[in-house]
Structures
1.
Amino acid sequence: MDMLLNPLNRRHRLRYDIPVLPGAFPLVGHLPAIVCDLPRLLRHAERTLGSHFWMNFGPAGYMMTCVDPDAFALLRHKDVSSALIEEIAPDLFGGTLVAQDGIAHRQARDAIKAAFLPKGLTHAGIGDLFASVIQARVQAWRDLGEVTILRETGDLMLKLIFSLMGIPAQDLPGWHRKYRQLLQLIVAPPIDLPGLPLRRGRAARDWVDTQLRQFVRDARAHAARTGLINDMVSASDRSNDAPSDDVLVANIRLLLLGGHETTASTMAWMVIELAREPGLWDVLVEEALHMGAVPTRHADLAQFPVAEALFRETLRVHPAVTLLPRRALQDLQLGQRRIPAATDLCIPLLHFSTSELLHEAPDQFRLERWLQRTEPIRSVDMLQFGTGPHVCIGYHLVWLELVQFCIALALTMHKAGLRPRLLSDVEKGRRYYPTAHPSIKIRVSFS
Ligand code: HEM
């Protein structure tokens, strides 16, 4: 087997009666295989060890990974905590709502969630704002004729999320680089030396926080301005126990992080799938021409079933968030096993998203799964966004912007007599962790 596993570590051993996946390296554990080859690693582990096994996340230690469908329900379990997220990446997620439980979490979430619901997004005119930014970018691609797709969708997403927050869009390339360094904090070895990911990631985090702190101050100074940061600042300043600026900055950083890489990756995969399957492009163009314009409100999305199916199927096959960490607070029953309190758990969303238990021919990209269904969307149909109290805040936003994006792409390219074509090998250089994305080198032409 040519996976990135340590050939010197073949010993089979147990922790709490559950098998440990062999092949860990010193210091980085199974991270090389998790980052570069996660689907194969999970299949290999399930085949050789069964539904429960320990994976070694290097600096974050061992997590008990469970591919039994019961594991997804853990996300709704009251005795399961998100605090582990803060321990894994304190520099990134410390003090943010994604790592909080119970009442503290609910309060922090309540302060921002309304703005991300269809009503809040419509009220803020996000659809119109996004449509014009997306159209301008897609027209630039048409004129360029060829693009490095992930770089482009990353830039576009940063622009969109900045405009959503009401942050002036200067200096975007700088932000982009800082974000990539910031994300490395999740997998950085715990060695604090110049030039190494930990030191660079922390410097990037400080840079980002300094910018955000200034935005918060600006928001206070110009309370009449619009944008989500202004709404968050004025709402929290009005409340009785107003959160400190540090907390505000941390949660804004979380929103930018949560909304950027994930959506950029999904958007890039969408273009890649359209480029490699001509039939897909044709049905999308047909729908776009039939409707004639990019939708701007959630109420209009039902009229774009092909675009919606494309959004759901792209995420199903290429979920941007592949693994979720949790900690058991009490003893738990998980499938056939008893899990002791304090066990660190890994919930492999990627496995469920592409599982035969949930989908027929799970490896095939099929819009029909969504177009032919008559039942409403259930939580397992959108498991790529998690479920339970921490379910993604950005779901409605992503749905809107990805439908807008593919319709704008279809209209613009079709009008110019162009269609997307893939110029690179898709399998090479794709990543699965900390977030999943196609290779940064993949190029797509419009010809
Ligand atoms: C394709 C795009 C996206 C995917 C696949 C995605 C996925 C997820 C997942 C799986 C979670 C659950 C984390 C957990 O349970 O520990 C989550 C939470 C979250 N997402 Fe997203 N997300 C996306 C886009 C966005 C966007 C656009 C935003 C905001 C602008 C956003 C903001 C958040 C926030 C703030 C949380 C934490 C919620 C909480 O802890 O209560 N996400 N997301």
2.
Amino acid sequence: MHDEESSSAELMRLINGYQVSQTIHVAAALGIADLLADGPRAVDELAPLTATDESALHRLLRALAAIGILHEKDHRTFGLTELGQELRGPAGAWAAFIGRPYHWTAWGHLMHSVRTGENAFHAMHGVDVWEYRAAHPEEAAIFDAAMTGLSLRVNTAVAAAHDFGRYGVIVDVGGGRGALLASILEHHPGVRGVLFDQPAVVAGAHADGFEIVGGSFFESVPQGGDAYLLKSVLHDWEGEPAIRILRVCRRAADTGTTLLIIERQFSLPAAKLSDLNMLVGPGGRERTTDEYAALLAASGYELVGETPTVAGVTVFEGRAI
Ligand SMILES: C[S@@+](CC[C@H](N)C(=O)[O-])C[C@H]1O[C@@H](n2cnc3c(N)ncnc32)[C@H](O)[C@@H]1O
């Protein structure tokens, strides 16, 4: 009986999961964690600072306390828990993105994707995520910061999992604002880095000791790299466009050049949900090792190794043949 009760409660917790996600998103978007950085504050002080309705904000903060993000110090005064402190770091940038209405709408139409196999985002907005963000720079800035946040969570593990020091030049293709590249170059000062991404994205990057090039990876990528790095790029695309990206990289690379693909470890539960995120959002998929090997084989590469990291991503190593 007890087990049945706890299973039912666990199921209800999972069913209502989106309420938790949206509650944390709104807290992150309002900057609640930063406002509580120096200690607990009262709702009547926080409401004007966040331009919110005091009573509704109180209800939000109570819910955040119920899920362990805040603690209620005394009546109507809230502080950060250890979990809540995390919102001040990289996870906060992801939380600020995940509930954005335009992205949320795509998840609201998961059923459309499951019934038709189509990308829900495109079906709802009439454009893909990249076109949408190009037309909405404020959303692009939130997304790019979220990507930087995700990268910061795995950079150290990635840097430890592969000897990047053996390359003269690393080209980070679709490298966002360059968080991973900056971390790699910090560990390997002798390596030269080239950050490549869409012009509007690299415009927001700080050139921390690397060269910056804007363009489209469907047309060309910088030549002369000893290693081409694609982190969380191929999972955004279905097979045909993913192969096109890889062929463009292959065209820029000499035979024998290394290709490094960093993507989620498919065996982990988080990868299965990320796979749905790819289905409804950018219109891509998470892949198994065999599936990456097949993409490489179709693009002039062979898969020569894979190194899982402690951060839940794997470094797949290919060689241009
Ligand atoms: C999921 S993000 C990953 C960013 C970064 N590699 C990371 O791991 O944080 C995918 C990246 O692909 C870039 N991208 C999308 N379409 C592109 C294109 N046609 N040419 C170049 N970059 C593109 C996006 O701007 C974005 O930075």
3.
Amino acid sequence: MTRRELLVGAGAGALGVLLVSCTPEPKPTPTATRTPSPLPTTAVPAPAATVRSTWATDPFSRGAVSYTRIGVQADARNRLAEPVEGRVFFAGEATDADNPATIRGAIHSGESAAVRIRAVAAPGERIAVIGAGLAGATAVAGLADADLDVTVLEARDRVGGRAHSQLDEEWAVPIQLGGWLLPGLAEGEEPAREESGLPETTELASALWRSPDGDVDPIGNAPLEAAIAAAQGSPTDIALAEALTETGSDLEDPSISALLAYLATTAGADADVLSSWFPPALPSAELRAVTGDFDAHLRELMSDAQLTLSSPVTRIAYDDTGVSLRLGTGESTSFDRVIVTVPLGVLQGGGIDFSPPLPFSHRGAINALGMGHIETIWLRYDEPFWETDATIWHSVGGDHVVRTWINLLPATGDGILVGIVGADAAEGFADLEDQEALLAALTSLAPFLPPEAG
Ligand SMILES: Cc1cc2nc3c(=O)[nH]c(=O)nc-3n(C[C@H](O)[C@H](O)[C@H](O)COP(=O)(O)OP(=O)(O)OC[C@H]3O[C@@H](n4cnc5c(N)ncnc54)[C@H](O)[C@@H]3O)c2cc1C
């Protein structure tokens, strides 16, 4: 803990007791565990250790990323980002119209919120930032030299939000349970400005598309690009799935299905609910993976602010003179302005009560956007069973649950496979017991067994 960090109320123990009675019971943060026995039965060897995410049931995210539903304008995100009474400001990935659902969008939204606050705040004002994820931490950094008194209120007992690095000395790199993948860079291309301060990354440059019958040609984004281009001229917004069909793609085709499974791991939603007028960013053939520690990075960004963990905000009362926040502890504190960075899922689920209610434009935007699902499972092998050096694996055909895998062995020297699953499949995956989830993951790896082992 830094010296400026504190816990509201008496001691951490007392606070913990209070929180239990005031807030929904969070699912325990996943921890690195040795694979429990008895081991599931599958031809794929059991890993030495497994860690998985459960964002779908986490009360402080209620899903993974926002998405734009059919018939919803991207402008909904701009409406959500509009300040209310010059006192309540919003940031977070869902408020960024250009790069929603991404690390980049979250950072950009935090920068924008800081600019907006700086334009109106007088020296010495008290500013609260709700949420210590990428958006909140970036907003705090943007206010650092503005002569403002900044306090961060974070519900969890850690920083990072949906950028969650878990350190375990048995793993060669931090286990990233949330966002950690960035689009690959073309030769000579510089990372986006928003990415400049992020922890170190490694390149994942080689993809493998594998069916039960062997390797298949990569499909690329051409079918999606054609569908989206055609849909731009249609009189009404239609689902991305419908746009694909209308441009000649067969959704039953195993390669198209694998491409959509990959899309779901970044969009958080299936093509039958995604807007084709305002589609999500298309998946990249090449990626960069963050292999550093988000936690340390975000703490550094917030080093000039007072960081208050384990303090869920339950109510925001505001008028044109200021803001009063009620915490899960029952305590209330006053500020001049507040930046709300909580996930869309929390706003949709009524996790924070606004008084007076937010304007219709904000409530309309909150309800119009969708909150999608992404889950991830990390497997560590003492003795890797796979023979390929490819780093991004796609499972083509079959009915496997986890169809996108990242192979970190070439980058880290450690036998780490990361399974990523999106949309409805992710919601179902999150519902599984640990053993069931492990079995689903291992079964999904069958296409990647060496031929003699399969
Ligand atoms: C599994 C998964 C995989 C992803 N993969 C990628 C990827 O590969 N690439 C990519 O670019 N993006 C990815 N993303 C998205 C990316 O992680 C997010 O866009 C980004 O981290 C969101 O940051 P944020 O600050 O907007 O929200 P958050 O990180 O969610 O921060 C909000 C903070 O608010 C806190 N909070 C919630 N409720 C309250 C309350 N009542 N009071 C106080 N605090 C509260 C939360 O605890 C949290 O810390 C992924 C996300 C997930 C979940």
